[in-house]
Amino acid sequence: NEFFEFFIKNIDHVTEFYFCGGEPLMMEEHYRVLDLLIQHKKFDVAIRYNSNLTTLKLKDRNVIDYWRQFKNVKISASIDAGWEQLGYIRHGADWDSIIDNLKAIRQDAGHVELILGVTVNILNAFHIFRMYKYLVNLHLIQPYEIYFIPVGGNMSLSCLPVELKERVTQHWLNELKNVNERNVIDSALALLKEMNDIDKHYMLTNFVREMKQLDSKRNENFVEVFPELKELLNG
User: Fold this and answer.
1) What angle do the packed helices 28-39 and 2-9 form, to 10 degrees?
2) Which residues of the chain register pLDDT less than 50?
3) Which residue among 47, 63, 154, 183 is least enclosed by CB atoms within 10 Å?
């Protein structure tokens, strides 16, 4: 309540709103903010999001109906992989639904700027470029509309053993041969350098323990979803 009192009092001075979460598109407060901006005819306000785009609706509200009314909307889509790998990394996420939502944004709110924000970790190391190329081929993102965020802790690529680091490096270098965007190449090479320069293999046992616990809790199978990493759990 304090926030909305302050917001309404100062709404004439608002120039930009940034929504993150959790998942902002599932928050009642997010739509309340947009309703107030529309009520006060603040259609020039820049609206920024971090969203996993698992849904575009909350109850009877479709966020695309809102976005059409604003001139400056930018979404950083937090999508780390596709297909069954996505469902494992972000438990409960459905790849086909996300594709449908991306298509709906491109078709019904074409002015919305969409960029792919990938959190790079052990699980998606061999799956990022497959997802990236798929979205580019469907014209859901442009080739330059991607950036990488390295994950820390037990999921960091720096936790991998040397042999797997070499395989990740070669995989990325092979994929980058087909990428013409300098910003994508430079950020990917910087990430590889960080992975190879830092040694956190002592944390790998924590990663393995967590994956086994997740499999037991969710009735999933890490090795089936990520066969290229099976040596981590079976080694």
Assistant:
1) 20
2) none
3) 183
CA 47 to chain CA centroid, nearest Å? 18
What whole-number distance in Å separates Cα of residue 78 and Cα of residue 87? Answer: 13
Task: Kindly report the pTM of this predicted structure.
Answer: 0.92
Separation of CA 130 from chain center: 15
Structure tokens given for 90: 């972000």
Sequence letter at residue 46: A
Region for 77 from its dihedrals, namely left if φ exceeds 0, alpha if ψ lies in -120 to 50, beta otherwise: beta
Q: Burial, 223: exposed, middle or buried (Cβ in 10 Å; 0-12, 13-18, 19+)?
A: middle
DSSP code per residue over the chain: -HHHHHHHHTGGG--EEEE-SS-GGG-HHHHHHHHHHHHTT-TTSEEEEEE--S-SEETTEEHHHHHTT-S-EEEEEE----HHHHHHHTTT--HHHHHHHHHHHHHH-TTSEEEEEEEE-TTTTTTHHHHHHHHHHTTSS-TT-EEEEE--GGG-GGGS-HHHHHHHHHHHHHHHTT---HHHHHHHHHHHHHHHH---GGGHHHHHHHHHHHHHHHT--HHHH-GGGHHHHH-
Question: What is the C-alpha to C-alpha distance for residues 64 and 144, in angstroms, rounded to an integer?
Answer: 24
Does residue 99 contact residue 131 with C-beta atoms inside 8 Å?
no
Interatomic CA distance for residues 124 and 135, integer angstroms: 16
pLDDT 10s digits, 48-63 = 999 999 999 999 999 9
- Reported as a single tens digit per residue, the pLDDT across 112-137 is 999 999 999 999 999 999 999 999 99
